[in-house]
Design brief:
The protein has 22 helices and 16 strands. It is α/β, with parallel strands linked by helices. α3 packs across α4, α4 packs antiparallel against α5 and α17 packs across α18. The model has no long low-confidence stretch (mean pLDDT 89). The structure holds phosphoenolpyruvate and magnesium ion (MG).
């Protein structure tokens, strides 16, 4: 830790609150395990298609990296930009690629083995060129290998990061983290996390909030300036990252940390008080669960039940699909630990930024043209019913131990709910026929996520088939505004406070009330205390959020008056922009 060096500051998007102080370390790339497989002539075409897809991904990543260089000082740019250009050139029509294709077409090697064989061969050729100096040859050979590793990782979708080797108490830094990578982080081992890529409402951000670690995503230029072990402050509230903090900066950070601990303790006092507005309207607060390690946090938060269990974690970072017994065990543990409070289990929502390698091997290219608009969520499950039926069977079995509900993701039309309901009935009959099963009296209620504009607009029809609604504002915003949820907020495209989104929320609560079915809101918006009065005004009475947010949201609810919330909502619904809505919220707080 060199305190003599100058302080350096970077800013990204604040994603999970809190101050973290510790030595910074970049997540190491794990060893690549490449299985060399001989293919048949008939398979060669598929392998070439896989190769092309991986090359395209690699190109996109390199273009992004190159774009980010603009944030760096000129001398670093001068060094790195030609390297990116060279990588991009090698990914074009280079000798390297010709060689790889020949290994596939002639020697009948699978794509990953072909890439590895050819990069090693090229590296050997470079090393044999006696006319250049050895250091230069070593560097160029390593560059070819590095490019090969990128392509192989994109072919095999192996996790890019390995966190176990990093010293305890570190600030973890990475170029990018996928949700599956975030699921591997043990929060007790780290003081904070930052990445160079990512926005605030993507699935990785959701996972990081679940871990309760101070986190900043999209900190451009920070990664390139890391010296491993440098003392670093990360501020998950402002998005600031400070390398080699001055004495004064350390003092500020320590004071903030102490103030946050005091505020958290004060909020914890609210855990046992009811969530009720000043005029006596009862509100239900539940927790979202991304990973089982959140269970103790949920128990302490004062949440009553789990409003959204994102079951994706069960499928992440494993070689094979989890079978019915494995899933039953996981759901049973969670249901039991909730001691009679309801648990809403959402069936697998795979696709878009929720990438699960186990499944990409089973379900390749058909999803690729635009993953957010393809076979995501329920669509995928209805194409591969064995996935849905296994999961439904496990949830039914586990629900013998306590109240559970089943939630369907990405619904856009009634037929999907009808088909899923038919699957549930079939699985139920099958389980009844099995000997020695302990089953509940009836299958759990079946509800739907309202996270596409189509679902919100068709809510009266969907209510005929669904037992409850859960509004997912993360995706509802993305699909309403045609703006990716992982985009940085600074671009001004993605904002759940946009009046068009608020109108869809309002429609959904009104339609649910008319149909007499429960409705909750479980997107990230639910965890923003400033937005909660507006949501109350739009008719939301049940919220589900990451456990850490429950106390502050409860505090806001206890200070709110429903008439004022409704007046705010009325104005927001006819506002012209998200900025206008933010202004209305600010004014209402004065
Ligand atoms: C949502 O889209 O708002 C939601 C809660 O689901 P997820 O974030 O898991 O897509
Ligand atoms: Mg969603």
């Amino acid at each position: 830790m060199k305190r003599t060096e100058a302080e350096q500051r970077f800013t990204g998007h604040p994603v999970a609150p809190g101050i973290g102080i510790g030595p910074v370390h970049e997540a190491a790339e794990p060893e690549l395990a490449v299985a060399s497989r001989q293919i048949s002539i008939a398979e060669a075409e598929t392998e070439l298609a896989r190769l092309n897809e991986a090359l395209e991904r690699s190109r996109k990543q390199l273009h992004k990296l190159k774009h980010r260089l603009a944030a760096l000082p000129e001398n670093s740019q001068a060094e790195l930009a030609p390297l990116m250009d060279m990588y991009l050139h090698m990914l074009g029509s280079s000798r390297l690629l010709k060689g790889v294709r020949q290994h596939i077409e002639i020697e009948l090697l699978c794509a990953e083995a072909a890439v590895q064989t050819e990069t090693e061969r090229q590296a050997d050729v470079i090393m044999a060129q006696q006319e250049t100096d050895k250091a230069g040859r070593l560097r160029r050979a390593e560059e070819v290998r590095e490019l090969g590793r990128r392509v192989v990782r994109n072919l095999t979708r192996q996790p890019f990061r390995n966190f176990t080797a990093l010293p305890a108490g570190s600030i973890l830094a990475a170029e990018t983290l996928r949700p599956a990578d975030a699921a591997l982080i043990q929060p007790e081992r780290f003081a904070g996390v930052f990445t160079a890529e990512g926005g605030t409402e993507g699935h990785t951000a959701v996972m990081l909030r679940a871990l309760g670690l101070p986190a900043v995503l999209g900190a451009e230029g920070a990664l390139e300036s890391i010296k491993p072990g440098t003392l670093t402050i990360i501020d998950g509230d402002t998005g600031e990252i400070i390398f080699n903090p001055s004495r004064a900066s350390m003092e500020v950070a320590r004071k903030k940390l102490a103030a946050q601990t005091r505020a958290r303790r004060a909020l914890a006092q609210l855990a046992h008080l009811p969530a009720v507005t000043r005029d006596g309207t009862r509100v239900e607060l539940q927790a979202n669960l991304e990973l089982p390690l959140e269970l103790p946090m949920i128990a302490q938060s004062g949440a009553h039940g789990i409003g959204l269990l994102r079951s994706e974690f069960i499928f992440m970072n494993r070689e094979t699909l989890p079978d019915e017994d494995t899933q039953t065990r996981i759901y049973s543990t969670i249901i039991e630990s909730m001691e009679g409070e309801p648990v809403t289990i959402r069936v697998l929502d795979w696709g878009s930024d929720k990438e699960v390698e186990t499944l990409s091997r089973f379900l390749p290219e058909e999803l690729e043209p635009n993953p957010a608009l393809g076979l995501r969520g329920i669509r995928l499950l209805l194409h591969h019913r064995e996935l849905l039926e296994t999961q439904l069977a496990a949830i039914i079995r586990a629900s013998a131990l306590g109240p559970a509900r089943i939630l369907l993701p990405m619904i856009s039309q009634a037929a999907e709910v009808v088909e899923a309901r038919a699957c549930l009935a079939r699985v139920w009959r099958r389980l009844k026929r099995r000997k020695g099963m302990t089953l509940p009296g009836a299958p759990p209620p079946l509800g739907i996520m309202v996270e596409t504009p189509a679902a919100a607009l068709s809510a009266p029809v969907l209510a005929k088939y669904a037992d409850f609604f859960a509004i997912g504002t993360n995706d509802l915003t993305m699909y309403t505004l045609a703006a990716d949820r992982a985009l940085p907020p600074s671009m001004g495209l993605y904002n759940p406070l946009t009046p068009a989104v608020l109108r869809l929320i309002h429609l959904t609560t009104r339609f649910a009330a008319a149909a007499g079915i429960p409705v909750s809101l479980c997107g990230e918006l639910a965890s923003r205390p400033q937005a909660v009065p507006l949501l109350l005004g739009l008719g939301v009475r049940q919220f589900s959020m990451h456990a850490n947010a429950v106390p502050a949201v409860k505090q806001t609810i206890r200070a709110a008056a429903l008439a004022a919330c409704e007046a705010l909502a009325e104005q927001a619904l006819v506002a012209e922009s998200a900025d206008d809505v933010s202004k209305l919220i600010e004014d209402s707080l004065k």
